[in-house]
């Protein structure tokens, strides 16, 4: 039977004949006179409509013959008996290759204009959802050919993360607006909800109120959605709504609303299988006109009298509303929401890869869901998960967009650069805008009452990842880490952190991803990201390959900060640095034990054999016997690790890669008249590792070293302009070296 239906279908596509006995498909839109062209077009359109209807009936019969055993008692798959269009015509892309090849070549008006702005809304709360929404956005941006306006209903956490991300992403022809979910909670907090999404799973009900009153329509998406096609195709379906239709939805592909999943299973009322709300077309203008807010509230109040709570959050209320008002729903083809939860009919939504439009990971199991094609879907998802987001910063040809002030300023600065300058690459790197994803993992921090808390601040790349567990064991206080990684490396880090017993149990560590771009390691930019996102009054500025002594956090936050009156004076507390050449070290538990290891040659003062100037001013000889903090003077190339107030100067971002990145920072602390105070009972130890790529470039490239000297001179000049005569000593000291 299947072969016979396909032959019939093909016959219908090949055989439409005009009233003149001539094949219309063999005479594409050409005629001798304008009148003849108009007549032939009218005849053609009439015949095409007839053929489409016949083919629709054939497909319906074919689907019934293929899936009779799996159909409900009435023999129909889907909600078509309720009069809602399923958009199964050829223009929707659900035809076979044979059918497409046999369509007329006559041009058809596009359903979406070339530069038409498409609006997309999403509810996003928390750290995990913020990560998910980035993958969704990547998949949309990858396929899109239209300007986009994203509307995010967010909690405070997601707002901070996503606003920073989009600001640094700088994607052309993309607008982003945020709406405070806290202001909407009162609208839905009265509804008991058992779904794991909590109160945020009900927020889509409030969109007519939350979104701007002049916004007429919007595509609403869950965060666990992946697009496999241009979102403009979905937007174009709005034009197929009848005058009464206000909501576009795909049928639910599980048996949930049929009520037969288990004994005494009582779902909310729904039409047949019901509808899934992971992908919604909302005609906001019409919804407001019919009084949507009052209608859904009345529906919810009525059903809650017997149901007591929702099981699937907003989806239950949408379905109960639609059952009472079926004429208001426009049914979308199921490939616009292929639902990958266990025991669904999602496999009936596609026969080829090209059929897929939207994949919905709506099972709590997410990527571990059961589906015979799950490997294909998982690979598609992982493609966007690890896709380089920098590649999505592309202009839309033919759709001019108004550049943001930041973009205009950046472009002007780039135009001022001299490409013949031998240090052009260094200067260009300083202007590079890196994408930043703050709080990549769950983060929780409660400020202390005494305002003396200290955050350990550091930066790292993939090759230092192994240091994280050891640092967390040595420092129990809050940590702010900026990680310089590619999109793919960020996912490797995520898997590493989630598998680590040490890391997954630490919630007071803020991990901030700075995405790779350019040829240099922007070390000071990455440091600044970690510094600016510390949430305590004081910060310990260190490097990730150092282990602080056990108890250093308490020593600093409970004693040194108070003792040295850090709140009212400008001080930088120096933590003396040591190093070992051994990968396995019995870490000293006290100053006395460290001094013993120093005398035995197990430990050394840091870099004494290759760069003594970097830490010699710490005065290690005095430190051996010191019992109280002592002041030291700034000297050229001094680069200690210090504890300062969080409002200290940022690192100078002109210094990239290896060389002078910390030296310049300590110099500016001194220029701002910070006292450098060495702590007598604190220490840190550098653990051995392979040389970084940047130090190798510094050692092997004379042009690299020459440019570094040029940047040093320019930094000195800037210090002089900023701090006047007080900064002359740095220039004099540099010339005397």
UniProtKB/TrEMBL annotation:
Residue ranges, annotated region (Disordered): 60-108
Membrane topology: Single-pass type II membrane protein
Pathway assignment: Protein modification; protein glycosylation
Keyword Mitochondrion (UniProt): no
Annotated localization: Golgi apparatus membrane
GO-annotated cellular components: Golgi membrane
GO terms, molecular function: glucuronosyltransferase activity; metal ion binding; xylosyltransferase activity
GO biological process: protein O-linked glycosylation via mannose
Regions that span the bilayer: none
Gene3D superfamilies with a match to the protein in the record: Spore Coat Polysaccharide Biosynthesis Protein SpsA, Chain A (3.90.550.10)
Biased composition (Basic and acidic residues): 97-106
Catalysed conversion reaction: 3-O-{(1->[3)-alpha-D-Xyl-(1->3)-beta-D-GlcA-(1->](n)-4)-beta-D-Xyl-(1->4)-Rib-ol-P-Rib-ol-P-3-beta-D-GalNAc-(1->3)-beta-D-GlcNAc-(1->4)-O-6-P-alpha-D-Man}-L-Thr-[protein] + UDP-alpha-D-glucuronate = 3-O-{beta-D-GlcA-(1->[3)-alpha-D-Xyl-(1->3)-beta-D-GlcA-(1->](n)-4)-beta-D-Xyl-(1->4)-Rib-ol-P-Rib-ol-P-3-beta-D-GalNAc-(1->3)-beta-D-GlcNAc-(1->4)-O-6-P-alpha-D-Man}-L-Thr-[protein] + UDP + H(+); 3-O-{beta-D-GlcA-(1->[3)-alpha-D-Xyl-(1->3)-beta-D-GlcA-(1->](n)-4)-beta-D-Xyl-(1->4)-Rib-ol-P-Rib-ol-P-3-beta-D-GalNAc-(1->3)-beta-D-GlcNAc-(1->4)-O-6-P-alpha-D-Man}-L-Thr-[protein] + UDP-alpha-D-xylose = 3-O-{(1->[3)-alpha-D-Xyl-(1->3)-beta-D-GlcA-(1->](n+1)-4)-beta-D-Xyl-(1->4)-Rib-ol-P-Rib-ol-P-3-beta-D-GalNAc-(1->3)-beta-D-GlcNAc-(1->4)-O-6-P-alpha-D-Man}-L-Thr-[protein] + UDP + H(+); 3-O-[beta-D-GlcA-(1->3)-beta-D-Xyl-(1->4)-Rib-ol-P-Rib-ol-P-3-beta-D-GalNAc-(1->3)-beta-D-GlcNAc-(1->4)-(O-6-P-alpha-D-Man)]-Thr-[protein] + UDP-alpha-D-xylose = 3-O-[alpha-D-Xyl-(1->3)-beta-D-GlcA-(1->4)-beta-D-Xyl-(1->4)-Rib-ol-P-Rib-ol-P-3-beta-D-GalNAc-(1->3)-beta-D-GlcNAc-(1->4)-(O-6-P-alpha-D-Man)]-Thr-[protein] + UDP + H(+)
Keywords from the UniProt entry: Glycoprotein, Glycosyltransferase, Golgi apparatus, Manganese, Membrane, Metal-binding, Multifunctional enzyme, Signal-anchor, Transferase, Transmembrane, Transmembrane helix
InterPro entries: Glyco_trans_8, Nucleotide-diphossugar_trans, Xyl/GlcA_transferase
Polar residues composition-biased segments: 60-69
Cofactor: Mn(2+)
Protein family: In the N-terminal section; belongs to the glycosyltransferase 8 family.
Function: Bifunctional glycosyltransferase with both alpha-1,3-xylosyltransferase and beta-1,3-glucuronyltransferase activities involved in the maturation of alpha-dystroglycan (DAG1) by glycosylation leading to DAG1 binding to laminin G-like domain-containing extracellular proteins with high affinity and in a phosphorylated-O-mannosyl trisaccharide dependent manner. Elongates the glucuronyl-beta-1,4-xylose-beta disaccharide primer structure by adding repeating units [-3-Xylose-alpha-1,3-GlcA-beta-1-] to produce a heteropolysaccharide. Supports the maturation of DAG1 more effectively than LARGE1.
Protein name: LARGE xylosyl- and glucuronyltransferase 2
Source organism per UniProt: Sparus aurata
């Amino acid at each position: 039977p299947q072969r016979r239906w396909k032959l019939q279908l093909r016959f219908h596509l090949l055989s439409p004949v005009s009233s003149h006995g001539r094949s219309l498909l063999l005479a594409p839109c050409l005629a001798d006179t304008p009148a003849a062209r108009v007549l032939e077009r009218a005849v053609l359109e009439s015949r095409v409509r007839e053929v489409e209807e016949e083919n629709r009936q054939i497909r319906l019969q074919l689907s019934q013959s293929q899936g009779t055993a799996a159909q409900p008692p009435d023999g129909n798959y889907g909600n078509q008996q309720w009069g809602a269009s399923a958009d199964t015509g050829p223009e929707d892309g659900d035809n076979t290759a044979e059918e497409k090849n046999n369509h007329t070549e006559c041009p058809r008006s596009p359903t979406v204009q070339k530069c038409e702005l498409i609006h997309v809304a999403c509810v996003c709360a928390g750290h995990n959802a913020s990560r998910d929404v980035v993958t969704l956005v990547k998949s949309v941006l990858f396929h899109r050919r239209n300007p986009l306006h994203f509307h995010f209903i967010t909690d405070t956490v997601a707002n901070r993360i996503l606003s920073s991300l989009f600001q640094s992403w700088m994607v052309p022809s993309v607008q982003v607006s945020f709406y405070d979910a806290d202001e909407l909670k009162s609208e839905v907090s009265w509804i008991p909800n058992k779904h794991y999404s909590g109160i945020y799973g009900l927020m889509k009900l409030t969109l007519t109120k939350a979104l701007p009153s002049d916004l007429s329509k919007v595509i609403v998406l869950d965060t666990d959605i992946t697009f496999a096609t241009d979102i403009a195709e979905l937007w174009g379906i709005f034009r197929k709504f009848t005058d009464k239709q206000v909501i576009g939805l795909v049928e639910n592909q599980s048996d949930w609303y049929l009520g037969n999943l288990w004994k005494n299973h009582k779902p909310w009322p729904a039409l047949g299988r019901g509808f899934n709300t992971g992908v919604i077309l909302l005609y906001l203008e019409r919804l407001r006109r019919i009084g949507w807010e009052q209608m859904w509230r009345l529906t919810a109040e009525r059903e809650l009298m017997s149901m007591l709570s929702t099981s699937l959050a907003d989806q239950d209320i949408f379905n109960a509303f639609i059952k009472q008002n079926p004429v208001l729903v426009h049914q979308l083809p199921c490939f616009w929401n292929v639902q990958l939860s266990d025991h669904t009919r999602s496999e009936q939504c596609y026969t080829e890869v090209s059929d897929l439009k939207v994949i919905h990971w709506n099972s709590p199991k997410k990527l571990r869901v059961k589906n015979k094609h799950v490997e294909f879907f998982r690979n598609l998802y992982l493609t966007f998960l690890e896709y380089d987001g920098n590649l999505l910063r592309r202009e839309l040809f033919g759709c001019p967009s108004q550049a943001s002030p930041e973009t205009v300023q950046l472009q002007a600065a780039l135009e001022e650069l001299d490409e013949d300058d031998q240090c052009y690459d260094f200067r260009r790197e300083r202007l590079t805008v890196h994408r930043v994803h703050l709080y990549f993992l769950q983060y929780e921090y409660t400020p202390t009452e005494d305002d003396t808390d200290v955050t350990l601040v550091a930066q790292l790349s993939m090759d230092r990842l192994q240091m994280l567990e050891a640092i967390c064991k040595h420092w129990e206080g809050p940590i702010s880490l900026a990680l310089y990684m590619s999109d793919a490396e960020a996912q490797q880090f995520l898997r590493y952190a989630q598998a680590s017993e040490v890391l997954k149990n630490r919630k007071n560590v803020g991990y901030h991803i700075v995405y790779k771009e350019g040829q240099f390691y922007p070390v000071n930019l990455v440091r600044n990201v970690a510094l600016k996102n510390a949430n305590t009054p004081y910060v310990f500025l260190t490097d990730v390959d150092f282990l602080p002594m056990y108890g250093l956090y308490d020593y600093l936050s409970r004693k040194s900060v108070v003792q040295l009156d850090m709140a009212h004076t400008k001080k930088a507390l120096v933590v003396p640095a040591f190093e070992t050449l051994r990968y396995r070290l019995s870490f000293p538990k006290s100053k006395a034990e460290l001094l013993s290891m120093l005398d035995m040659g197990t430990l050394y003062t840091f870099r004494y054999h290759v760069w003594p100037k970097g830490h010699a001013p710490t005065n290690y000889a005095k430190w051996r016997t010191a019992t109280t903090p002592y002041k030291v003077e700034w000297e050229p190339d001094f680069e200690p690790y210090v504890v300062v107030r969080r409002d200290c100067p940022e690192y100078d971002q002109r210094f990239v890669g290896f060389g002078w990145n910390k030296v310049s920072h300590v110099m500016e602390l001194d220029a701002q008249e910070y006292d450098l105070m060495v702590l007598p009972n604190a220490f840190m130890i550098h653990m051995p590792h392979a040389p970084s790529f940047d130090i190798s470039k510094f050692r092997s490239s004379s042009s690299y070293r020459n440019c570094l000297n040029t940047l040093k001179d320019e930094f000195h000049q800037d210090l002089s302009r900023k701090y006047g005569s007080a900064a002359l000593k740095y220039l004099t000291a540099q010339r005397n070296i």
